[in-house]
């Protein structure tokens, strides 16, 4: 399959509801534990997704679509959520993510992006020139990456409990 | 965290709804494509989950809890879904999975399993002795494994579209 704006939005609009369905009212043990030192809990991942809505995806799209002579993106802080969310309950983060994503999809739709716009470019601080279609594709894959990560972090809480079946469960071996 | 029946059910009861939220009314391109030769589509994975509800998890729990002298499990056919589901729309499979899982959770709850029962054993055809708690833990991790797999299969449909960002997206590298 090839990139399509509508098919991208199909994923982007589902992600917050998928996470809500997975995580609402679930025991803290599933969401506050990590995969080990220097890794994220489910709670940390939701914070990271919120920060992306605020500072990464649509702000970068706006830079690409702007008339600015310098279209270099700001760097994205992968650790901002540790300060930003201190003390907030998970459900508050989920609600925040749902609202921010909804607004960003409305904003994205409001641009009425044709192929001409999707081929416009910005400057990524590490990679150089990237297109708007690549940015939106990455937004989609980034969502799916974090759904997979959340599933893995939760699965690992039972690593000791599955006994010999660990041999069949690839998710516990990564 | 350690194994707990209630926390296991928290995951088991959410999985069909998570998949429904992810996949209902989504374009076929996301669910009928695979990761490459000899790999499964999202559609194939849902069929595999249905077959597990019918022949694997609770039937094996019943063997463990039975008075039979021989508690050897039947082998599980990982490819049965290719024949069983021919021609069925994805939504029909999702509905079937939701119903089967609901019934299996009711059946599991009806057993009122105390620790004594959770330590009872069956014979796995490859591993030998396994406990009921290990079987239920594996059921949970197996769900999460397939949610992660579905996310990965979908993400890979955009492997060519993310451009240089592929370097940051681990899910595209596995």
From TrEMBL, chains A, B:
Annotated InterPro entries: DinB-like (IPR024775), DinB/YfiT-like (IPR034660)
Domain of life (superkingdom): Bacteria
Family annotation (SUPFAM superfamilies): DinB/YfiT-like putative metalloenzymes
Domain (DinB-like): residue spans on this chain: 12-150
Designated name of the protein: DinB family protein
